[in-house]
Each structure stands twice: as structure tokens, then as C-alpha cells.
Write a structure and sequence with these properties.
Chain lengths: 550, 550
């Protein structure tokens, strides 16, 4: 096992007298957190053993306010759900010496896996090439727990689990959440999700009823619209600027809400992607977030904070010819550079934060987590126990071996810094290509500060068929021409929060996350050619080897 | 890679002229099925590439009837769901040479995994000890697909996917389903689930409305009750005998349904666990299934066939002192020994079958699948795409390496035969212990033919406190005394389909799946002691070191 990055730690004393590293002012070293872990009850490492994220928090939360109760928003479905009664019988398993003929758990004897190994990067040597050369192999045996080799193994992870996920990984997730967000109320909890799309689905079944409307950015993640629609929940778009959601506009919408004109009750939910928003790439500043939170307090709005891109915050954009900004000098500097989350300012417990490993480790893990008040986390867990169950134990074991047993918290922060610099490079590539290839009279953009998306506005009023053709028709026409030119970008209209609302803007979304640099460059070149052709700029249509009809 | 089990194949000619092995009359060899696979479109092996189980079926389904349409049962939620529009944009990716700046998929460059290896048993050497000695190591590299080493790899499996799951594993699942069940209608399809609990949750959201009632065995899987209840769906128990659900009783219930007395509409759904039912262990015979199916046709009932224990069908019980029945002589004999599924007799397409790897490979995979008509599978996929998404790619890769690339279909059947014999031994252990330790005047049982559960009836009328105490009070008293004696069994009342219905039976459920043989024996001994004490049999209360108060 590789040693964690050896950055100096300055421990500080918490109000409770417990010494914990202060994540926002001092560097953090994996082993320091590790060493300070409370003595854990070993029973929770067992098969399908219950655990509670409360027990994994390092700070004292005494004296902090308790979260508000949300009974007035909680659905009949969520209120009447009883959870899995058989899992509740697990409490008798702590009787010393008891022989269980109770739970219908298969014996691990019949899991046809003796060992699982992963080759992964050591801290500081994160690239694919370095991993090939200097990567280490982590191995999970079948009975490592019984053999005292590890606290997590195949026989445990590959069996049934609790909806909250396995204690081993839940501990790491809770510590990470505390380290990064330090929620300012007493009774916050984490529980695993099988990803944030499911997290939103479950949140809506808990907090919304058919006929409800939910606020969001006026352009928003289309899957959120599509998850909500069949539940009878429509989105109401809030105007945005370069920093995303506009608090005054949101306040105005709520203050003047006309249920009959809107065809829905005044919203009590805000769905927002505050950082590197999909599709606009906008990132709300700290001040913006505080202003939005205040509006939510004023109108008693509950916030669903969907944050897959939180750790894809990039280095400042210095422009095409300026030197790069220096990378974060320490873990503390890195954490400090991040925009504070809604969770970190949530004195009321009115935020359900959705976190995901998809963008920073692997979407194929299907492991995420939510952080919210005890009341809502308890409801979420009950629902999970009778629907999604726990995230795949196979994924949990893989993540735990990497994150807890190998990298530790500090190593993970190093990984996140690595990702940050990589995405910065990728973003700079797409911006350079845009500078080079796009006709600025037609296409305009702002450098994204976070996330995977570059959002390009097209001035449809300059289109030769405007105003005979509608915005959506022009969008369709440009889109198809881009395809003809051999590139795929997403149409802005696919991201309308509410397609019944009037839209007078036209955008395309391009991602710099997926393709290699030369493809990004070439893709944008093709996009530029298609736009020029479509808007009859410079060259005549049909020039450059492109004909109209194909 | 180990060679597949070398059992002779006799291929037969399908009505369509395509030569396929007939699973019910001839042995099946892995490579024969493998070799006959249709030439697959390679594009479907790619990241988040769409695929359709239709393309993986080997038989011709021409001339078979089409499934009925279920529009009259499909909910508003399911009808209005549009699916994930961005995933639909994937269709443009097949344009030759296209550069995608479209989908927000992270680059596999940032998946910190270079290689994943698994040590697994070779065919025929399945035990833990043998796997340690002679197991082989399967390895998935990061870019095996690009390097032509394999059709599935880390860069693909660990990225986003389609709700149906990855084509690689979906092919194997479809072939397996065809091999075992050969559904008798034309337009059947498979799609992956994240497990059957979620499958039921999604089926109910597709097919039931608040206020509905759903038929099931009068004792049923408690999580099914708990999944249904918050959706406003109550279960109506149908009387059972040793073969499970009684078709005549079901017909009578439906024919005389009184909505106002029942407090719910006449049911249009049957939830049944036909094989090794949880908790009763009952297995419906083929004739019983046909009779139930006919009742469902008569009353237009849609069937949810939940079959986690299908391959835990055991050898015939020969009694404590008789020699064991010989194991299946061939794959064909094994498949023939299995009770035919509802799916295999489903000429109407009125069955949604829920399959799961939980009991035969590992619950921690959180991978299962459903088989149903194209109409319902399409709705299921759409729902998955905006909620659960695909099962974890990490699990899918692990299962595929084992099932497709290593064992093949024939090797998997050998594994299932191994499991069958193992469960037979375990069942025989619990039955021997019951013969030895239980007071037959009070406790009676039937040998289970399938599954994980032994269902023991207790004659409460012999309890010293009867009739002063209710059945549930006596059950509670026995349960707590069993705990005192150091064993855990499940209370029958936890499995009431409907706790408002009158119950005049008292049962306990014990599992022989989990504990080693000596623990099963000792657990039943403790159960017997507790029952004797509770019913004041033989010894006085307080004898044997047990006192009343603890």
C-alpha cells in the first residue's frame, strides 16, 4: 500500500474539545483522520449489518441548531412506508452466541469468487501511463474480515446489504462530507444512493405530489425534467446569468405566483445544479448561493442540490496567451478554492445534497450518496430498502479498497486536484478551438469555471431564414448541418426546464470531457464550418466539399 | 480459459430452419451456442451503446402469437414517461467518422483502474477449497475492446450505460432465458434490473394505481407487501396448500369479489413466487401452474412471476435413512427436472418474470433481469433510464467475465447443478435436525423441494395460554423464548399478505441457506428446546439451565 501524500497537518481543537483537522484552514493528511476515527463497533462490518452515518462524524455537533421538520411537504407514500421488517429483525443478531436461521441470506460459500484484484494508481502518479508503470494491485480476499486481513471482503460485500450501504464505505463518505462541507446543523446524515438520477427520483416521490411545480434553472438537466414529468411534476424555469440562477428573479416568480395561470401550485422545491451546471456550465458564486438560500428561506423552499460536477471546478481561465494559474499549493488551499456548497451554509437543514462518484471516479460504480437531515435520510433509507436496495456491493468493495484502504482522504484530494488540472487543460483546448474557428458575429460564449460543458449562444436573428423560421426550426437546421459536417453537439432546446415557456435564446452544448484534444479541436472546427455555412458567412454554401443535399 | 464441459450436443432443426439445440431434449454445450450466435453488430459493444435483446435470440419466433396489449392496466405515470432524450441522441453516433461533443460522458482516462482480476472456479471444481487450488484468474483490462482482446472492458463497463444494461451481458441473459424458458410468444424481450425488489417496485408503478389490490399467496415475501403498501396497493391473500397457491380458491375470490367489503377494486395483478416460495417453501407443480394461468386468463390477471429460487430446486427428498437420488445425468436432464415457469407457458404475454443473480451468484451484484412483452419491457427501460439507470457496470463486467467469457452457458448449468446438490444437502441437514429435536405433537412440516426456507407449523391450540392469548401473542412468546435459547427464526405473521385478514395458523420460518451444517443442527435443537419449554412438554420450565426471566 502506498503511503498517503505527506503534507503537514496542523490539528485544531473543535469546540467540543475533540481535535480534528480544520479542512478549510489547514492541510489534511489521510492517516491523521484515519487515526482519529472513533473506535468502531466491529459488528457493523458484518453481512447486512446496520450502521448510522452519525457514528462516523468526527466533530461534535452539540450546540448547533437542529434541522427543521419537513412533515408539511412529505408525501403520503413516504409517510406510510414502513421499511423492510425483516431487515429490522437484524437487531436480534447482536445477541451473543445467537445462531441465525432467520435472514434468507445465501452463504458466501456459493459466491464463485475467491479473490478480486484491482490495479490502480498510487498517489501522485495518476495518469494512465503512470498507472501502467507504477500502479499497485489491491486485493480483496473472500474471507479477509474473518481472517483479520481487512474489515471488508468478498463474503461481506457480495452479500445482501442495508439500503444505506455498507458501514465501511459509509464511514468514508461521511468523513469526506464532513471534511468538505461541514454542515452547520446538528442532525445531518449521509446515506448511499445508486446514483443521483435515482436520488432525484426518490426525493421527488418523498417531497412532491402530482400537480406540483418545481423551480430550476431555465435550462436544466433534461433527465431531471424527464424524471419529474411522469410523476406529474413540471419544472418552472428561473432566469439565469453567467452565475446561474438569479435570486431576484426567483423571488419575483414566487412572490407573484399565479397558480391558475401557471397551472400548478406555488413551488416548494428548488432543483439546482450550482456548480458547472448542465447544460450552461454556469457556477454560482458564494454570494449568489447565499442570496438564493435567503430567497428559499423567505418562501420556505426545500433545495435539492445536485452536485455531480462539484470537484470539476477548474483553475481560473487566464486566456489563450497568458500563463496558467499555479495549481493549489496544499489540500487546504484546494478545499478553500472550492465554492462553498449549499450544504455548507444550510443552517435550516433545508438542503438535500446529491453527490456522485460518476464524474470523479466512474459512472459504472452506480454509487452516490445523499446528505440531508436525519428525518429525510431515514425516509430515503426506508425507500431504498424496499426498492433499489444498497448500491452494488461489488462496486462498494472496489471503491472502498481504493478510497479508504489505499488512497485515504488525502490521496483522494490529490486525485481531485489532478482531475481539476486535467479538466482545466481540456477546457482550455475547447476555448482555444472556439477562438480559432467560430464566427464571433454569430456564436458567443463564456469560459466555464466548472463541469464538463461549454455553452455556446447562437444569434438566430442573423440567420437568413429568420424570422420566417422559428428558433427551434433554426436550431434543428443548424444541428443537422453540424451532423452533416461530422460533429455532434446537443441542442439547447433539449434542456428547456419547461418547453411551454417562451424561449428567445438559442444555444448548443458541447462537452470537452469525453474526446481527446485533437478531436475536440476538429469537432469545434466542424461546428464552426457548419455554422458559417448555415448562416452563409464568408464562403458560399456548397463550397469546401460540402454539398447541400447529403 | 478453461474449456467448457464437454457434453455431446445434438442439434435440432427449428421450425424456422435455424439449427439450435433444444434445451429440453438434448444436452447443451457452451461453444455450440456461442458458435451459433448471430454475427453481432460491433457498435453495440461501445460505451452506452443501445442494444435490443431481440437481436440476441437464436430461434425464429415467426408464427408465434404476439403478446396482448396491456394499455388498459398501464398507469398514467408509465404512459407519460418519455425516457431519456439525451440517450436517444446516441442514434447519431453511428454516423461514420462523427466526432461527438454531445454526451456528457467522462473520459475513461480518468477512471483510476488499469485492470480488474477475479479468481473464480473452473467448471466442475466449484467448491471454495477447489477454487483456492485450481481456480483461474480472469482479467479485464482497461482498453481490451480497443485492443481486440475482449468485447467488454473497464473503459466501457465503468462508464455510463443504457437502462437495459450492456449488450455484452444482455446477450448472455437473453440466450439463457431462451434456453431455459423458450417463451411461447413472439415479442418477448429481456432488460436488466438492479434486482427483483426494484423490479417489483417498477412493475407496480407501471401497472397499479393507489387503491388497487393485488393477489398473492396468503403468506408472502414481506418486502413485496412493504413495497406495495406506500403505493396504495394492498395484497389480498389466496389460500395455499403444499403446492402453493390454490387456483380454485383464487377463482372463487375473483368471481365473488366485493369491492366495498374488500375496500379495493377487483385485482388485475397476481404477485407469485412459484418456486420455493418465501416464506412457505412451497413449489407449484406444472399442473398447478397451468391451472393458475387459466384462472388468470379467465379474469384477465397480469402475473408478476418473482423467481429468485428457480434454480434452487433440489433433488427429491428421500427421507432420513434412504440413499440420495442420483444427480442429473446431463444438462438436458437437469433442465427437464425443473418445473416449467409461467413464462414458458405464457401464450398471452401476460407474465413479467423477475430473475435475479442474488441466490445463484451473489446478491452484491445487484443485477437481475425481467422478461416480458416488448410493450412492458420498453416502458421498464424508459423508467430505468430516468431513475435506477443500468445496473452497476462494475458488476456487469464481473458477471460477464465469469458467465460468458469463462463458463459459458454449459458451465453455468454445471454450476447450477452444483448449487442444487449443495442445497439438497443443506435441506437434508435441517430435516434431519427437525426429526431429531422437534416435538411432533406441536411442530409439523413438509420437506421443501426448492428455495431456502423451511416452514414449520406450530399447533398453537396446544399452548398452555391458549385461548387466553391470541395467535400473535403466542407467536411472540415462542419467538422471544427461541431468542433466549440462542436461535433466531422468523415469525410467520411477518409474512401475512394482508394483516387485516383473519389468520388461524401459526408458523415459523427457518433458513438452511446461511449457516453451516452444525449450526443448523444446533439452531434447530435450540428451537426445539424453546418450543418444548414454551409448551411445557417433557421437562419442567426452568430446567436445563434456562430460567424464565432472562
Amino acid at each position: 500500500m502506498a503511503p498517503p501524500a505527506a503534507i503537514e497537518v496542523e490539528a485544531v481543537t473543535d469546540t467540543s474539545g475533540v481535535t480534528v483537522p480544520d479542512p478549510l484552514t489547514v492541510p489534511v493528511k489521510s492517516n491523521e483522520i484515519y487515526g482519529r476515527r472513533k473506535k468502531a463497533d466491529k459488528r457493523q462490518w458484518g453481512v447486512a449489518a446496520p450502521s448510522d452515518s452519525k457514528d462516523f462524524r468526527l466533530r461534535s455537533y452539540e450546540g448547533r441548531p437542529k434541522a427543521r421538520r419537513w412533515d408539511h411537504y412529505i408525501t403520503h407514500e413516504a409517510k406510510t412506508r414502513k421499511g423492510n421488517s425483516l431487515k429490522q429483525a437484524a437487531k436480534f443478531l447482536s445477541t451473543p452466541g445467537i445462531i441465525s436461521l432467520g435472514g434468507g441470506l445465501p452463504s458466501s460459500e456459493y459466491f464463485p469468487f475467491e479473490e478480486l484484484s484491482l490495479k490502480v494508481p498510487t498517489v501522485g502518479h495518476f495518469s494512465e501511463a503512470e498507472t501502467k508503470d507504477s500502479g499497485v494491485v489491491l486485493t480483496a480476499g473472500k474471507h479477509d474480515l474473518a481472517n483479520d486481513k481487512s474489515i471488508f471482503d468478498i463474503s461481506t460485500a457480495f452479500n445482501y446489504g442495508q439500503g444505506a450501504g455498507a458501514a465501511q464505505l459509509l464511514r468514508w463518505i461521511t468523513e469526506h462530507t464532513e471534511l468538505v462541507h461541514d454542515p452547520p446543523y446538528e442532525d445531518w446524515r449521509c446515506t448511499m444512493s445508486i446514483g443521483s438520477t435515482s436520488g432525484l427520483d426518490m426525493a421527488l416521490r418523498m417531497l412532491s405530489r402530482p400537480g406540483d411545480m418545481m423551480l430550476s434553472e431555465e435550462y436544466t438537466f433534461s433527465a431531471a425534467v424527464e424524471t419529474a414529468a411522469p410523476l406529474g411534476v413540471r419544472l418552472a424555469g428561473v432566469p439565469i446569468d453567467a452565475e446561474g440562477l438569479l435570486p431576484d428573479a426567483m423571488d419575483a416568480i414566487l412572490s407573484t405566483w399565479d397558480a391558475s395561470a401557471r397551472g400548478g401550485r406555488k413551488p416548494h422545491l428548488l432543483y439546482t445544479v450550482p456548480t458547472g451546471q448542465n447544460p450552461t456550465g454556469a457556477t454560482q458564486s458564494a454570494a449568489r448561493r447565499r442570496a438564493i438560500y435567503a430567497v428559499c428561506q423567505k418562501h420556505d423552499i426545500y433545495i435539492i442540490e445536485d452536485e455531480p460536477y462539484y470537484f470539476l471546478q477548474m483553475q481560473p481561465y487566464t486566456g489563450p496567451n497568458a500563463p496558467d494559474a499555479p495549481p493549489p499549493a496544499s489540500h487546504a488551499a484546494f478545499l478553500k478554492s472550492l465554492v462553498p456548497s449549499f450544504l455548507s451554509m444550510d443552517t435550516d437543514g433545508r438542503v438535500m445534497r446529491l453527490d456522485s462518484f460518476s464524474k470523479v471516479i466512474s459512472p459504472g460504480s452506480r454509487v452516490g450518496w445523499i446528505t440531508a437531515s436525519e428525518q429525510l435520510v431515514a425516509l430515503y433509507k426506508k425507500h431504498a430498502d424496499v426498492s433499489t436496495q444498497n448500491p452494488a456491493g461489488m462496486s462498494q468493495l472496489i471503491l472502498w479498497k481504493l478510497l479508504d484502504e489505499h488512497w485515504g482522504h488525502a490521496g483522494y484530494l490529490d486525485w481531485l486536484i489532478y482531475i481539476r488540472l486535467q479538466y482545466t487543460q481540456r477546457r482550455d483546448v475547447i476555448l482555444a478551438a472556439c477562438e480559432k474557428y467560430l464566427p464571433k458575429a454569430i456564436v458567443s460564449w463564456r469560459p466555464p469555471m466548472a463541469g464538463m460543458f461549454h455553452w455556446m449562444q447562437v444569434d438566430f436573428t442573423r440567420h437568413p431564414d429568420y424570422p420566417q423560421k422559428s428558433i427551434e426550426e433554426i436550431e434543428e437546421s443548424v444541428f443537422m448541418r453540424v451532423i452533416e459536417h461530422g460533429a455532434l453537439v446537443m441542442r439547447g432546446s433539449w434542456f428547456y426546464a419547461n418547453s411551454e415557456e417562451r424561449h428567445d435564446t438559442l444555444f448548443f452544448r458541447a462537452t470537452y470531457a469525453a474526446a481527446p484534444a485533437e478531436k475536440i479541436d476538429e469537432g469545434i472546427r466542424r461546428f464552426g464550418e457548419a455554422v458559417k455555412e448555415e448562416f452563409r458567412l464568408g464562403k458560399e454554401n456548397g463550397v469546401n466539399g460540402y454539398s447541400n443535399g447529403h
